[in-house]
Structure formats: C-alpha cells, structure tokens
Structure to design on (462 residues):
DNA sequence: CCAAAAGTGTTTGTACTACACCCATGT
DNA sequence: ACATGGGTGTAGTACAAACACTTTTGG
C-alpha cells in the first residue's frame, strides 16, 4: 500500500510576477512604471506585473508580461527575490516573484506602453509606488549593480552601436558614482571585447565620437578560457 | 464607480519552501538531506521543505520548517531563487522558493533529525535527489560562495569558539579549493575582526591551537565606517 | 581662432601571490 | 630526541587609483 502525497489541505496562493524594467536614454538609467487601473490604489504608480498561469514557468510569465507591455520578445531577465509579507496586497494574499529586465529603450512599442499609462522615470525622480514596490525597486538596483560589475549585461541597455561616452554614462548611472574616464577607458580597452567601428556619432560634438559594438563571440571565447568581465 | 481588483479567475498555486541546510563538522562542508516518506519518489533523498501558509511570510515558513527538523530557532537564512518548471513536482503544480541556511552542527537536535531519516552528506558524496533538488543544491552552493566571500557569515557554521585551522578548513571547503594558509591568516589578521582567546583547543595537537571568537560588534562598527569583509 | 567634446599614458600606491622555516609539546 | 601540528614574514607582481594635456572641427 502506497502512501500518496496529499497536498489538498495546503493553502494555495496567487503568485504574481513583478518586473522592474530598466532602460537607458544615453544619459541616465531609468525605470518604466505604469499607472494602476484597479482598486485598491487606483491611479498610483506601480511596477508592471501579472499572475503566473498553470501552463508556464516564472521566466515565461515574466516574458509574457513584458511582451504585453513593451512589444519586445526575449528581453534580458533576472529573477532576484520573492516578496511575501502577509498583507502586502490588501486585496488578497499574493506572493510576488520579482524580476528585473534590461531593454534598449529604442525598441519598445510606444503605443503599447501608452495604453498602460507607462512612463520612464530616473531612479531619483520616481514617484512613491504601491505595496512594497519601492523596496522591490531598491533591491533590483542592488542586484543590477552586483551583476553588471561581473557580467557584460550592460550592453543590453544600449543600442547595438554606442559611443564610449554612452557606455561610461551607463556605468556611472548604474553605480550612481563618478568613474574616472581614463581609468574606465583603460579597463574597457584591456578587456578587449569591443569592436571599434569606422562610423562616428556626430550628434554630440564637432569632432564626432567613434561607435563601438560589443563583441559577444570574442567575449564567450575568452570566458571559456577563464576570462572574467569586471568593471 | 470603482473598478475593484478581481483576482478570482487567476490560477493559484502551491508554494513550497525548500531549504538547503549547510553544516560544517570542523573538516568539511555538509548538507542535511531527508528521506522522503511520500509517493511519488518515496524513499528517495530530498531537501527539507514545506508549504507556505496563509498566515506567514516566506522567511517565517523557512524558519518554521527548519525548527521542525532541527529544533533550532533563528537559523541564518538566505532566500536565493524560485523554481517553477511546470512539471517539477509530478503530483501537482508546485513552485518552490529555495533558501539556504547555515547552522552550527552541534546545535541541532539529533532525535528530531533522525525522525525525519535525515543525514549529513558532503557535497561530493550526496545522493541523487528528487525533482529539481540537485539543481537547487548546486545553485545554493554558488550563492553561498558569493555571499561568504563578501560577508562574514561563515561564522554561522562554526561553534562560537573555533581554531584558525577550522576557519581555514571551512573556507577551503566552501570554495572547494586550497587557500594558502599564510595568506589566509594574513588576510584574516588584517581585517582585525577576531578575538583571540587565552584558551587553547588541545584536541588535535600536542601544542594546542588558540581559540578565536568572531567580534561582531567590532565588525559592525568597522562596517558602518566603510569597511568591507572580503575573503 | 576659439569653444566644446573626444581621445590618450604614466606614476604611485595597494593588494594579492608565492613561498619555507622555527616553535611547542607529549611521548 | 623526535614527530606532529601550530605559528609566523617578506619579496615580487599585478591591479587599481590618481592625475592633465592634446586633438579635432564647425562656426
């Protein structure tokens, strides 16, 4: 006689997936927030989220939710923490698994985001958010800092071709501190994972600044041989 | 007319909390595994786990589950990832939020752990586990390595008084690599966060080796002034 | 010719690595 | 006296940090 698992008396919960969406406008790191359309807290700002469905895993749910808001497929995603305070959502017990995502701001579908009343904010000018979303954003930023200093994921936030100035701005904005430009350039050069293009971006100076591409293949080769990205 | 949140049509799930329990026997890092008593997979080894209840958050659930198995309260805990493959538990859709915990092996209640058929294994000699628990353990170890190199949490695995040899063994075992003893001692000394006691441990040599305590207060002071623990 | 941004190297200090011998004690 | 584990320091190397001037070009 077999004993079978009987889970029927266990409590079930709603499992939300909430996404901190990072973007970069060539100057500053931003997050995309939406205006909540439901009570409670209607009209207040919040993270984009949705509920996990029975036929998908959490990564798939996050991708679905992000596609729905931005129109972009295969967004870079990292799951970083789950939030479970008993009364975090006053309407019903809800656990939230939080992700952060990195998108190239140029790629998103403005029509879609406008339908959600979504808006980009810098970290410092972001409004108060519903529930525990302020905490989630704070934790997302520290996870992002951790990860971007160890893996070359910052490029996910940039267009395919970018200037060194933009790259520099990006890292300064992520770490919220000044990084000496010469040391920064030395470090980037020494890693040798960028391709310098012949093209220049003439939009910000008379001299123009060279455009670069991230050389993913070279990076993966070097990584396979023990190289570690580090900023 | 207010629109109210209506979550009633959303899928609900069982939310499990699974715990990778690390211990250290003065020689090697170990994990505590239990023998599953329910079908499916009865008699196979697994992580200790349980289901989240409506009146508690995830940290509380993890503490409850660990107290239940080990008899220890206020165990050091880190939540590190959630696992959600659709068919990970063949009996029913279950999402697992995974924690790792660090305990001083001397503290746990042997009677309780024996009731669960629990046993300590070194990482390399651990048996195959049910579901995705092998993956969970693997990820727990890398989270632990990350964290122990940046925060002084290794002491959670040691008794209050320990020898430098034990501390050294601990870090070698966590990182699974040899650490030059003189460099290790130099680093530990330079951080200046241990208290050297007058007492010696005579159990492993004629000369005896000094016992040390972690100086939490001093560490917190130094940390507040910008000091970072680093191994 | 000048304003504005882009581009570029060197020096100094700090941290990590590699490495070997003496000490204390019980038997 | 010797075997066993405990304890300690230094020199070389590599990485990180600080720092300022020249170049280009459109107006």
């Amino acid at each position: 006689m077999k004993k079978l698992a009987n889970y029927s008396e266990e409590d079930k919960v709603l499992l939300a997936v909430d996404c901190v969406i990072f973007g970069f406008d060539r100057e500053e790191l931003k997050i995309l927030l939406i205006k909540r359309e439901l009570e409670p807290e209607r009209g207040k700002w919040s993270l984009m989220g949705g509920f996990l469905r029975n036929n998908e895993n959490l990564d798939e749910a996050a991708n679905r939710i992000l596609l729905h808001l931005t129109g972009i497929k295969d967004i870079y995603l990292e799951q970083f923490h789950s939030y479970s305070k008993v009364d975090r959502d006053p309407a019903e017990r809800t656990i939230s698994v939080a992700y952060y995502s990195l998108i190239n701001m140029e790629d998103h579908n403005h029509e879609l985001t406008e339908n959600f009343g979504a808006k980009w904010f810098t970290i410092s000018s972001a409004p108060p958010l519903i529930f525990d979303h302020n905490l989630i954003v704070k934790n997302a930023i520290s996870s992002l800092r951790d990860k971007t200093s160890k893996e070359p994921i910052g490029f996910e936030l940039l267009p395919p071709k970018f200037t060194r100035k933009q790259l520099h701005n990006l890292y300064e904005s992520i770490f919220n501190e000044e990084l000496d430009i010469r040391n920064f350039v030395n470090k980037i050069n020494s890693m040798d994972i960028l391709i310098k293009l012949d093209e220049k971006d003439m939009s910000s100076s008379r001299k123009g600044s060279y455009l670069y591409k991230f050389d993913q293949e070279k990076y993966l080769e070097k990584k396979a041989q023990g190289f570690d990205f580090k900023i």
Remarks:
- The first strand of chain B starts at residue 12 and ends at 24.
- Residues 133-150 of chain B form the longest helix (18 residues).
- DSSP finds six helices and ten strands in chain B.
